Amino acid sequence: MTVLGARGAGVRRRGRRRGDPWLFRELDVTVEAGDLVAVVGPPGSGRTTTLLALARRFRLTAGRVDVRGRVSLGHVPDVSAPEPVFTVAEHVRERLALLGRRHAPVPLHGLDPRKQGQDLSPYERQVLGVVLAELAEPAAIALDGFDDGLDPREQESLWALLTEIAARGRAVLVTAREVDPSRFTTVIRLSTEGGLAAGEREEAGR
Length: 206
What we know:
By secondary structure, this protein is α/β, with parallel strands linked by helices.
């Protein structure tokens, strides 16, 4: 089942700049239930903007993105980062209250429920973001910076969690500087020279 589709999607750079005015453009992608999608590229290539546009949290300049169901954000710095003084347990309780759901045991995937947001490591912030995103029972989860500040062991642990989520039928979208394309259903490659680099969407087999 298709949960997300982009057709001719693009975002222009803000302000006047020399060179290509587009951050990314002409993005066509279809995301099915259970897909693992990576948006990759160097710093400044527009990874976060592309992710937010696919989640319909950023206004497009061109094209369209259609979503069937909800896309929940995991950890996206400056957008959905943890509250510094809230504990993990308090984050969960607040999110359940906002969703109008009863308080119930929630898998924390190894997180200390007493730990405050300001004390969480980059890996723990990612895990908390996934925990909170799943509470909304979305069709897809989007998280930023899969490889930012995580050592190889932590990346493998996060990968195991994301593949478990995908196996349950939720699509997962991540940004990263680079990934092993064989692990992902789709890889969207960006550049700093005007968005989608020449072809720009690699279909990969898991």
